[in-house]
């Protein structure tokens, strides 16, 4: 079949992703992305260190980020996201901001990190009491709690697995079980940390069961990155993605007068409890 008359593929907007060398969930990131946006991924160089605070520091060094952003530059992304939670919270809020500045300087393009996107999402939801789930060791989990505390958030409960490798192999059942353990007090939201932990299909179930917004590292990363370019992330039954966002007003074409319709009755809206 001759397809030359189609004129080539449709234009794609680009989102650059810098991920740690062991990141294995490329497909999960794509699930939040609409059809007219493409992800352009690169990874940090391999280092023989297990998941730990030391690894978080190594994969977030500014020189490493500089090279990764430069590599992405050839594909001309409109925004670049550093998709690593621990790597972006290990230096606290000041460290996260410095990483964004370093990436923006390296690529002359808007940049963000997973941990920065988390704080943005918490602000969007007005959430300050957070139940926390991580696959990390206790020391890495405590570092995340310190980061949240610095941002004015309180961790009301936590559950962690203590893993130092193969985090992407954790099944949804373990994620759900940890979430149930973490929600032990009054919380405004649940956050599931680590971009290498699968969460996409677990979020709707947990939101329905726990009656609160559920955020995950990959979800907030993609939500924030797409938001930077005026695109809405896709994901059914995810509270963060249902939040009202300011959209540019687009003039509608003139239409012929239509018969006046009866106003629709407002539907009941069930809020988070």
Which key phrases capture this entry?
alpha/beta; 4-stranded parallel β-sheet; 10 helices; 37% helix
Put the structure in a nutshell:
Helices cover 37% and strands 15% of the residues.
Q: Total strand count, please?
A: 8
The portion of residues assigned to helices is 25-40%
Q: How many individual helices?
A: 10
Distance between the termini: 56 Å
User: Taking Cα atoms only, what radius of gyration do you get, to the nearest Å?
Assistant: 20 Å
Summarize the structure in words.
With 273 residues, the chain is an alpha/beta fold. The protein is built from 10 helices and 8 strands. The strands form 2 sheets. A 4-stranded parallel sheet has the order 2-1-3-4. It has a 4-stranded parallel sheet with strand order 6-5-7-8. Helix 7 links the parallel strand 5 and strand 6 (154-160).
Topology, please?
Layout lengths: L12 E7 L6 H5 L6 E7 L9 H6 L3 H12 L5 E4 L2 H5 L2 H16 L2 E4 H12 L3 E6 L3 H13 L3 E7 L11 H11 L6 E4 L9 H9 L3 E3 H12 L45
Parallel strand pairs: 1-2, 1-3, 3-4, 5-6, 5-7, 7-8
Helix pairs in contact: 3-5, 6-10
């Amino acid at each position: 079949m001759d397809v030359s008359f189609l004129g080539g593929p449709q234009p794609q907007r680009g989102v650059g992703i810098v991920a740690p060398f062991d990141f294995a969930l490329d497909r999960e990131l794509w699930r939040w992305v609409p059809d007219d946006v493409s992800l352009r991924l690169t990874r940090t160089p391999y280092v023989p260190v297990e998941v730990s605070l030391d690894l978080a520091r190594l994969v977030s060094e500014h020189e490493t980020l500089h090279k990764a952003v430069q590599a992405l530059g050839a594909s001309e992304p409109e925004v670049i996201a550093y998709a690593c939670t621990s790597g972006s919270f290990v230096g606290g809020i000041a460290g996260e901001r410095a990483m964004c500045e370093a990436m923006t300087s390296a690529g002359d393009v808007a940049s963000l990190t997973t941990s920065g996107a988390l704080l943005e999402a918490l602000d969007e939801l007005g959430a300050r009491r957070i139940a926390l789930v991580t696959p990390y060791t206790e020391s890495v989990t405590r570092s995340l709690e310190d980061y949240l505390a610095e941002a004015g958030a309180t961790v009301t409960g936590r559950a962690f697995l203590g893993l130092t490798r193969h985090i992407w192999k954790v099944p949804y059942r373990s994620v759900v079980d940890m979430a149930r353990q973490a929600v032990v007090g009054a919380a405004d939201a649940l956050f599931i940390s680590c971009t290498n932990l699968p969460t996409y299909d677990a979020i709707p179930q947990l939101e329905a069961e726990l009656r609160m917004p559920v955020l995950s590292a990959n979800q907030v990363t993609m939500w924030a990155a797409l938001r930077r370019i005026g695109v809405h992330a896709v994901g059914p039954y995810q509270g963060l993605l249902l939040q009202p966002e300011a959209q540019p007003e687009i003039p509608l074409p003139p239409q012929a007068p239509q018969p006046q319709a009866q106003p629709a009755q407002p539907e009941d809206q069930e809020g988070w409890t």
